[in-house]
Amino acid sequence: QVQLVESGGGLVQPGGSLRLSCAASGNIFSISAMGWYRQAPGKQPELVATIYRGGITTYADSVKGRFTISRDNANNTLYLQMNSLKAEDTAVYYCNAEGPVVYRGQGTQVTVSS
Dihedral of CA 26/67/37/35: which sign? Predict the structure, then answer.
């Protein structure tokens, strides 16, 4: 089992920044990749960014150049630095861990509004 707890969401103005964190615990050695999904009201979930065990990262086209995924292996924490936020980034953001089983956290709300 892997437990994921997200934090760092909130309300921010367009053009602002937020950093999301995801603390992982449990059988983390089984994890081969971690990432962030988001889901806006009435929309399908969107894979925002992924970081693989070797450090390779991938991003959705909608966030390239604005978002950065990273991890702190010593503290078992995943991050998503979000800059130049837009209203369309408003969503619940979920941390995701892939291994033999896919795990997902409870989500954290990000609202971009003036």
Answer: negative
d(CA 60, CA 91): 15
Euclidean distance between CA atoms 88 and 113, whole angstroms: 9
Task: Judge residue 38's burial from the number of C-beta atoms within 10 Å of its C-beta, 0-12 exposed, 13-18 middle, 19 or more buried.
Answer: buried
Q: What is the dihedral of CA 54, 45, 60, 108, to 10 degrees?
A: -70
* Successive 10-residue mean pLDDT values, the chain, 114 residues: 95 98 90 95 95 94 97 94 97 95 95 96
Contact 49, 83 (CB under 8 A): no
User: What's the pLDDT at 30?
Assistant: 85
Residue 76, burial from CB neighbour count under 10 angstroms (0-12, 13-18, 19+):
middle
Longest dimension (CA), the chain: 42
